[in-house]
Design brief:
Layout: H1 3-18, E1 32-38, H2 63-77, E2 82-85, H3 87-92, H4 94-102, E3 106-109, H5 122-140, E4 146-147, H6 160-167, E5 172-173, E6 194-196, E7 205-207, E8 213-215, E9 218-220, H7 225-230, H8 233-245, E10 251-254, H9 270-277, H10 283-293, E11 296-297, H11 299-305
Parallel strand pairs: 1-2, 1-10, 1-11, 2-3, 4-5, 5-7
Antiparallel strand pairs: 6-7, 8-9
C-alpha cells in the first residue's frame, strides 16, 4: 500500500472528527518547532530529478523569492523558525543566510550537496557536513547546532552519522521519522523529542523527529511537505492539537518550493508532478493558520522547552534576537 493511499485513508477517517474542532486560536503552553529546508525546486530526490550538480547553475531559481515570502509570513506573525540551509544554496545566494540570521531565526545545516546519507561513506558525509557548517557559520557568525538529512535519509546502517555530528559540534538531529511503511528504509525512533542513544561511541544526541499521524502501524507526516499541502487544514490542526494535549510539540517542515505555484516541472513524470504540485495554492494559507493557532519557535527552543538532558538544551532565549518584519531579498 502506497503512502498516497494511506494519506487518503487517513484523510477520510479523520476529517469528520477534525471538522468538529473550533477554528478559534487555542495557543497552549507547548512550544512547537517551525522549520524550513532551504533548497531549490531542482533539489528533489528521485530518479526523474537533476542529480548532476553541473546542471544546477543553469536552472531558473525560485529559492530567494520564496524564502523571502516565508520570512514575510513569519515576520507578520512574530514567529521564529529554524532554516536548514543547503550549503550549495548558501554559497550561491549568501544574501539568503544573511537575511535569515538578521531576522532572528536559527540556522541549521541541510548538508552541502543534498545527497542522501545512506548513499555516502563516512568520509564523504563528514566532508560534506564540514563544508556546509563552515559556509553557514562564516556567513552569519551564528553557531550551527542542528542537522536535517536530505530526504530523512539516515537508516540504521548509518548510526555512525550521529557520532560525526557530535564530533563536528552539532547538538541535535532532525532527520528521523517515527514508524514508516518500509521499516528497513527508516531509522526506528519514538515520537516526539528524545535523546537518541544509538551512537557507536555510546554518546547521546538530541533528536527532533518529524511528527506523524498514526494509522495502524504506519505514520503519515501531517505537518510537513506534500502531506501538509494535501491534507485539509482542519486535519492538520486536529493532529497538532492532539500532540499538544499530550504535552508533545509537533514539527512543521516546508521548503520554498512548497509555496511555488510557478515551479518548472514540465520534464518530470506524472507521479512526480502530482507529488510536487498538489495543494501548492493552499500552503501559505495553512502556514498562516498554524502561526495563528499554535505557539512556534526554533527547533533548539522547542527542544529546550521539552527539557531534554542534553548539552544543546543549555541555549537561552536571549541568544537569538527578536523577530523583526522581514526585509526584501534580491533575486540576483
Amino acid at each position: 500500500m502506497s503512502y498516497s493511499v494511506l494519506c487518503y485513508i487517513g484523510l477520510w477517517v479523520t476529517w469528520p472528527f477534525a471538522s468538529w474542532e473550533t477554528h478559534l486560536s487555542d495557543r497552549g503552553s507547548v512550544i512547537n518547532a517551525m522549520s524550513f529546508d532551504i533548497e531549490d525546486w531542482f533539489h528533489l530526490l528521485g530518479p526523474d530529478t537533476l542529480p548532476d550538480v553541473c546542471l544546477w547553475q543553469d536552472q531558473p531559481s525560485l529559492v530567494t523569492r520564496y524564502t523571502e515570502r516565508i520570512l514575510e509570513i513569519l515576520g507578520a506573525h512574530g514567529v521564529r523558525a529554524t532554516f536548514f540551509v543547503l550549503g550549495w544554496i548558501a554559497d550561491r545566494y549568501p544574501q539568503i543566510t544573511g537575511r535569515i540570521a538578521s531576522n532572528g531565526h536559527e540556522l541549521g545545516t541541510h548538508s552541502y550537496w543534498h545527497r542522501p546519507v545512506h548513499q555516502l561513506t563516512r568520509r564523504e558525509f563528514r566532508e560534506d557536513l564540514i563544508r556546509s557548517i563552515a559556509v553557514l557559520e562564516q556567513q552569519t557568525g551564528q553557531k550551527v547546532r542542528g542537522f536535517r538529512a536530505p530526504g530523512f535519509s539516515i537508516t540504521p546502517e548509518q548510526s555512525w552519522a550521529f557520532d560525526i555530528m557530535l564530533d563536528l559540534g552539532l547538538e541535535y538531529d532532525a532527520s528521523l521519522i517515527p514508524f514508516g511503511l518500509r521499516q528497513g528504509m527508516r531509522y526506528p525512533c519514538c515520537q516526539g523529542p528524545h535523546v537518541l542513544h544509538d551512537c557507536p561511541s555510546g554518546r547521546g544526541i538530541a533528536e527532533l523527529p518529524a511528527s506523524v499521524m498514526q494509522i495502524g502501524p504506519y505514520g503519515l507526516r501531517f505537518s510537513g511537505g506534500g502531506y501538509l499541502r494535501l491534507l485539509p487544514a482542519s486535519v492538520i490542526r486536529w493532529y497538532g492539537r492532539k500532540h499538544n494535549r499530550r504535552g508533545m510539540p509537533f514539527v512543521v517542515y516546508l521548503h520554498p518550493r512548497d509555496l511555488a505555484t510557478d515551479q518548472p516541472l514540465a520534464t518530470v513524470s506524472l507521479k512526480r508532478h502530482f507529488m510536487s504540485c498538489v495543494g501548492l495554492s493552499s500552503t501559505e494559507r495553512k502556514l498562516r493558520m498554524l502561526c495563528t493557532d499554535f505557539r512556534f519557535d526554533t527547533c533548539v527552543r522547542a527542544l529546550a522547552a521539552y527539557k531534554l538532558p542534553c548539552e544543546a538544551m543549555s541555549t537561552q532565549p536571549s541568544e537569538l534576537p527578536p523577530v523583526p518584519l522581514a526585509a526584501g531579498l534580491s533575486d540576483s
